[in-house]
């Protein structure tokens, strides 16, 4: 089973997919199959037996495990005569989690809180705070921020080059004048002369990673709790929610300015690094601001505007 999984992972990556989590899950499945059911081909009974070993796992997690192997089975049954195509699972493992849409004052509060986290040489705090502002300004993925190096920023043009990100795509992201000034101020505070050093280092100059950024968020996000509350009654804010916020607030601004959304969406999609416009619509949330604008536009339409 390990050989089959390795060949599948290599095939997917040759197409541009990174599949880190999927690959790790399939490797765990292959290890179980080879140690507990050596020589057996892929089947529903084998997959279900493996999933039963996760005794304390949630139904959602078990459904996700099954879905991962189900996708792999499409490949396996084509190259291995003994393997079978798994039936589609009934568990619910997909769907949009309710993102936290930050108001601008909340971004400012997060940046302030992040700038005060424990940081012996100051780099961890400065980097975390600046990444928060950059994600809000440009809609970058957290992983794109943490992978940036100093050489990715072109000060003469005010752009950041995002290299080999999701689906191995690269893009050039123009910055607003204010965002460029913040980046330049941040870079001037980094004691480094090598262009290949991380743009957002943490203590000792080590590069940030997504888990480190998520932890920084975890210890600061309570500054956003409503007054009088000390626990979250919903999913707590995450770094990735800033990307959702960027898309939603961008559309709010365009609608308020009377822009043609259908004409503007391809630009937003390209700016975010998406292959399809549908991927960009995934980031939209029905905020009070968007619903109010939509309601006003429909009222104008229904009240006697052009109905063509």
- Give, in order, the helices and strands: HHHHHHHEEEHHHHHH
The CATH superfamily title of the largest domain: Intergrase catalytic core
Annotation, overall tally of beta strands: 3
CATH class of the largest domain: Mainly Alpha
Treating each run of at least 4 consecutive H or I residues as one helix, how many helices? 13
CATH architecture of the largest domain: Orthogonal Bundle
Backbone shape: globular
Mean pLDDT over the residues: 90
Order of strands in the sheet with most strands? 1-2-3
Q: What is the percent of helical residues?
A: 40-55%
How would you characterize the overall build of this protein?
- This protein has 13 helices and three strands.
- It has 308 residues and is mainly alpha-helical.
- The protein has three domains: 2-79; 106-224, hpI Integrase, Chain A (Orthogonal Bundle); 241-302, no CATH class.
- Helix 1 runs antiparallel to helix 2 and helix 6 runs parallel beside helix 10 (241-256).
- The longest helix has 21 residues, at 59-79.
- The protein starts with a helix and ends in a 6-residue tail after the last helix.
- The model has no long low-confidence stretch (mean pLDDT 90).
Indicate the topology:
Blueprint: H1 2-14, H2 20-36, H3 44-51, H4 59-79, H5 104-114, H6 123-138, H7 142-147, E1 153-154, E2 159-162, E3 171-174, H8 177-188, H9 210-218, H10 241-256, H11 261-272, H12 277-281, H13 288-302
Antiparallel strand pairs: 1-2, 2-3
Helix pairs in contact: 1-2, 2-4, 5-6, 6-8, 6-10, 10-13
């Amino acid at each position: 089973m390990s050989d089959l999984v390795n060949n599948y992972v290599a095939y997917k990556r040759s197409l541009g997919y990174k599949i880190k989590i999927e690959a790790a899950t399939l490797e765990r499945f292959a290890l179980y199959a080879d140690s507990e059911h050596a020589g057996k081909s892929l089947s529903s009974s084998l997959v279900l037996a493996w999933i039963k070993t996760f005794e304390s796992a949630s139904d959602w997690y078990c459904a996700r495990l099954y879905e991962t192997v189900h996708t792999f089975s499409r490949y396996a049954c084509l190259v291995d005569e003994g393997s079978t195509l798994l039936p589609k699972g009934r568990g619910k493992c997909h769907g949009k989690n309710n993102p936290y849409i930050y108001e601008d004052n909340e971004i400012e509060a997060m940046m302030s809180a992040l700038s005060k986290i424990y940081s012996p040489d100051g780099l961890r705090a400065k980097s975390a705070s600046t990444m928060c502002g950059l994600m809000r300004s440009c809609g970058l993925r957290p992983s794109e921020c943490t992978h940036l190096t100093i050489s990715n920023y072109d000060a003469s043009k005010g752009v950041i080059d995002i290299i080999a990100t999701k689906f191995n795509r690269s893009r050039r992201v123009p910055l607003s004048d204010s965002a460029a000034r913040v980046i330049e101020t941040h870079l001037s505070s980094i004691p480094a002369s090598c262009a290949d050093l991380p743009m957002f280092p943490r203590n000792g100059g080590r590069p940030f990673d997504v888990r480190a950024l998520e932890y920084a968020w975890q210890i600061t996000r309570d500054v956003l709790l409503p007054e009088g509350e000390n626990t979250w009654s919903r999913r707590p804010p995450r770094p990735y929610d800033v990307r959702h916020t960027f898309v939603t607030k961008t559309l709010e601004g365009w609608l308020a300015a009377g822009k043609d959304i259908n004409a503007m969406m391809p630009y937003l999609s390209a700016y975010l690094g998406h292959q399809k416009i549908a991927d960009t619509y995934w980031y939209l949330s029905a905020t009070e601001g968007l619903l109010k604008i939509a309601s006003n536009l429909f009222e104008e339409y229904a009240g006697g505007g052009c109905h063509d």
